[in-house]
Amino acid sequence: MYSTQMSNYNNISTSTPIGGIISSASSPNRNSSIVYDFNNHKQEVCGLKWSFDEKLLASGGNDNKLYIWSINQSSNCEPLYEFSDHGAAVKAVAWSPHQHGLIASGGGTADNH
After folding, report:
1. What is the C-alpha to C-alpha distance for residues 82 and 71, in angstroms, rounded to an integer?
2. For residue 49, which of 8, 32, 39, 70 sits 20 to 30 Å off, Cα-Cα?
3. Residue 39 carries which DSSP code?
4. Over 60: is that where the pLDDT of 46 sits?
């Protein structure tokens, strides 16, 4: 199962079968785009979600990890944050529409958090 997430401004991200994420983000002038290749997940990515301001991308995977990526002009593809508290695959991620930077994540059936 692959995950795909599209934002309001045509930023699009999709997962690869081996835990990678390919993301194309529009440049500020909207005349070009920047392609990012994120490869920190060790297993399949099953949840992707852009933040409401479209500067952060969250990814959850079958490796029980949640990563937060910063989408900016640099080509640095290291995660901004890594969370490893889940006891099962991170299947769902959602940003709060009311509080900037607040995210909720949900795991599989073995996750007791």
Report:
1. 15
2. 32
3. -
4. yes
